[in-house]
Design brief:
The complex is a heterotrimer of chains A (627), B (377) and C (297). Chain A has 627 residues and is of the alpha/beta class. Chain A has 3 domains: 14-248, no CATH class; 361-451 and 542-627, 3-Layer(aba) Sandwich (Rossmann fold); 463-541, no CATH class. The longest helix of chain A has 27 residues, at 213-239. Chain C has a single domain (3-283), classed as ABC transporter involved in vitamin B12 uptake, BtuC (Orthogonal Bundle), CATH 1.10.3470. The chains are: A alpha/beta (627), B alpha/beta (377), C mainly alpha (297).
Amino acid sequence: MSNLLTVVSVGVLFVFLWWANNNLDQFALRVMRTGAVYIVAAVAYNLVNGITGQFSLGPNGFMAIGGYAMALLMLPLEQKKFVWFLEPQMWPFNSFSLPGELFVVALIVGGLLGALGALIVGIPSFRLRGDYLAIATFGFGEIIFVLANNLIPLTNGPLGIKGIPEYADIYWCFGSAVVATLFVKNLVNSSYGRAMKGIREDEIAAEAMGVNIFRTKMQAFLVSGFFAAVAGGLLGALVTTVSPTLFTFMMTFNLLIIIVLGGLGSITGSVITAFGFAVAMELLRVMEAPINIGPIHLPGIAGMRMVIFSVLLIVLMIFWRRGLFGQWDFSWNWLLSKIGITSKAAEAISPVEQNGAPRPTATSVRAEAQEGGVLMSLQNLTIRFGGLVAVSDFSLDIKKGEIVGLIGPNGAGKTTIFNIITGQYTPDSGHVFFDGSDITGWRPDLIARAGIARTFQNIRLFGELSVLDNVLVSEHLGIKSSLLTAALGLPRYLSEEREARSRAMALLKLVGLADLYDVQAGALPYGQQRQLEIARALATHPKLLLLDEPAAGMNPEETKRLMTFIRELRDRFSLTIFLIEHHMEVVMGICERIRVLDYGVSIAEGTPKEIQTNPRVIAAYLGEEEG
Amino acid sequence: MKRMVGIFVCAMFLLCGGGFALAADPEPIVIGFNLEMTGQVAAYGQAGWEGANLIKEIVKPEVLGRPVVFRLLDNKSDRVEAANAAARLIEHDKAVAIIGTTISGNMLAAGEVCEKNKVPIIGPTTTNPLTTQGKKYVFRACFIDPFQARIAATYCYRDLGAKTAAILSDISNDYCVALGKFFQEQFEALGGKVVSVTYCKAGDQDYSAQLTEIKSKNPDVIYIPNYYTEAALAIRQARDLGITQPVFGADGIATEEFLAIGGPAVEGVQHTTFWHEKAAVTEIGKKYVELYKQKFGQDKEVNVFGALTADCYLIVMDAIRRAGSADPTAVAQAIEDTENLEVVTGPVTIENGDAIKPVVFRVVKNGRWEYSSIVYP
Amino acid sequence: MNLEALIQQLMNGLSLGSLYALIAIGYTMVYGILRLINFAHGDIFMVGAYCAFFFVAIFRLPWFLSALLAIGLTALVGMSVERIAYRPVRNAPRISALITALGVSFFIENLGLVTVGARPKAFARPEIMAKVVKIGPAAVSAVSIWVPILSVLLLLALMYVIYRTKAGMAMRAVSTDIETTRLMGADVDRIIALTFALGSALAAAGGIMWACKYPQINPLMGIYPGWKAFTAAVVGGIGNITGAMLGGLLIGMVEIMTVAFFPGLSGYRDGIIFTLLLVFLLVKPTGILGESLKEKV
């Protein structure tokens, strides 16, 4: 249904373009073409800044790459001889030029070079957390600018290249806009897109759910670099000339205004504001021009436009962060339900029970067979922060199928141990063995893949995503289709997606959130957020589940239910559970074994009963001086 | 709700997309102006517009018995906008000819649109040789870079007796790079030696490294073909470093800011330019200077961008008259046929779209630009 | 290259580098505390130079008094920027804060263009800065000697504030853990304001010295020094003040020495700086002195 509607509306668009091409004047067509080029660039830019939440300042550099690549390939030979009059053009570009029919090849080559540029900036920028991308992409733009100016035999330096045939007609511009928009929109709605949004919402949580942060950021950045370069190629073929000053930082600033105004994260918003921007620039032209009334010369509000733009940017960020469309995106389902053709319920996914539970895979069968073997072994873990020893020489073995509790006063280092297990921290000494491998120092996403899932003490859901999408982010680690397969919506991916969805729905049903699947996770009440975190953790198909204070903030009634639920989980998914909890009722009620931690040191271990009577534990909890 | 507003706004834009027609009076002849009124080089466009309005008072805007009206569009110093502005002037305002842009980069984009639509466009100060190359409808009212640089090189070698030269040019400006290259070519052709070529970038403020390098090569003359800010700063720093050799510049430093920023350091700096009010050899040139001083004050230096934009106006008016019609193609042919037309900056002949006109030499004396000589082509 | 040129180039690099260092410190202080790239910092630097210019040119105040007043005024501007634009987005997603910062940067630049005009203004420098001094065989302008000396003095003063005063201790506490410091009863808002004030004051001092060395000011003069100083802060190890100083000197020296040893590459000057940045991020991402920041989970 949706696909059909998309095809039909693209068809209608092109009929309109055909009409426009024959009836509108050149100026109107120029403005429309400019708008279409902006759409390509803005959609690409929003993928990084809005969807993935990484602050790039790079589109101008990538556009320059695409523009030059296109110009070098498409410029007719006789024109090339003219243009390079300071120094001769370098081989091989001086010896060939592509015919007009191959314009698309030039755009794609440019796009690939743009992606290569993105790779070069991305590798150093994404290795660390933090905002290095902003400075690195700005620097990259400057490097491209400097190279374009200096490499005269390649680029003709500041004189630029002129006389490019005007290949970027209305069909090419809008065709590219349609392709870019549909590709990016599909990508954003796919598992890959959800992983990107997960990073935007909470990088640490996404990583703990098995999302490879570096690779996912890089994927967004490469796609963005590709389309930005395509936009650059189109722009060059639209204005028929390419030079370093065509792609200045102003270009990036304009695009930033567009995506912020349209809504960071809304592809629909980017499309509409990008086109609107091109049109508005022409409409507003009148207002800024200087006026002469008799002898009085009003110099216009020269530069005022930029003042207003920058104030707009600040005000938007402070008061209206979501822009026109927030993170909302147009979909046919939305439209159809608005006009009452289909009801919202129709798109709900019915959970498939047998698919819902992680299938008893070979490993889990083996796990059951070896019931009683050690699943995880923590050996002599020590970690220091500055001078403070947070955890000291901590060792613990957890057997398959056990429920083990970790308790201790606030600040005892419990969560730190979880963070060491899941790879957020690397211990200064000691080892974590899990399921036969030494996972000490592994990246959190690899640990998640190995089979350890967790919840967080201070809930870290992807607040702006729907309940279902939160769970689906975790399903990403099981997706085998490539990014291209997903973005092109090929059947192989679609069936994977369907399966992932029904599994996710089954998990939601299990935690009692199935009816709320399309609610924003951040809008759920506290208790349900905790439930959702558990469902999200389960979606990574773990062998070991770490629960960090699952009962925090729950009333006695809820706590009781939680206890039953945790036991159920263990049996149903043949899980091993390691939990931190303050509610003694919970700990004593469900744990088979309890370890007590104080000031980073183990002070006791035993069955609930033993712990309850242990004098050191009592002392630690009552805060008495020891000894 | 906000969503609906968004969609509404979008629909508005789409509706507008089709028809922004502004009614144009068919009777008067329209000359379009495509100038940099805002943005990076707003100063040039604004000065140009000033000149156009000034010359209108001397040569009445009337030709073939029809009134001439100006239609100004700001290209915001941006080439996408420059191309759009040209299209709009042609489509909506039915301009017979377009004056502008002041910088070459914008002309490369706007010129293509004019060429395609067969409407003449004439740039007052677009010195990049590429702008008119291979084009029948693109012109310029100034001389081209190679010409200016060669005259400068010849002057340095013959008249200043320089045997070695250093060049410091702005790598991010087509104009500066071309001047530097052609200067070097000519200077070496004459038998001189260019001992150092270094580059800076527009907006640079520190030139100490380049200048120290130049100083160590001890050239007889230093050629700095950059715009006024970069040139003035570089010269000041050169004097700070104890570099005393004569400095030669090009027309890009022909502003009062050059004198203000340079202060005593730029005393004695010489350069080539389009004109000097003392070199106003034509009748109309003298009138223009007189009117300019009357309007803006006696001690105000007459702005070169304004004068050359005025020249464009005169060239276009003359062409329309000779063509005997307001048909853009005929006007373009008539512009190409311009010969020895008396304009503000001297007699001008157009050849292959380029203006052939004399080069004026000026020198800074007591903090003012003084006329030193004129070289005819 | 002869000895004379070498000495001169070293002095050039030293004075350019110490100016970058002064600006870089402001970036690194703010980043250390708020994890925010204050894109407007380069423009604050410009505001400092303009303030001094106006005090001299319009109010006809003596030069040194003007410089002091300008530094004070710029510190106020920096604090207001924080109060008006950054505080409301302090707890917003990081990208919102970054966009706000970029918006502020463009706002200051363009407001400058609209109010004081794009045309550059000549900056009057005191006689003591203008003299040409002989160092060995090399002639060096006095300002190139003054700049490193004054920079070092300012840095020592800053170090004193940070490591020897109560306010400095609070700043260090905030940069380690903002929430805990708040819980301990410290007025975090006030400490952040103070950080901005100090950073801006140093930027203003840098701006004034910059204007003395390159005696021209325009509203866009802060852009490139700003970006390069930020690069210096990253190269030195973001969040680390000593690192920012070293990074500044390194960037300044690399810039000058590129031209000195390879005059043919002078056109690539800025490109080389940013390539250096990418290389640093690749090889030593934490910078010369920085430690990797552990994020609280």
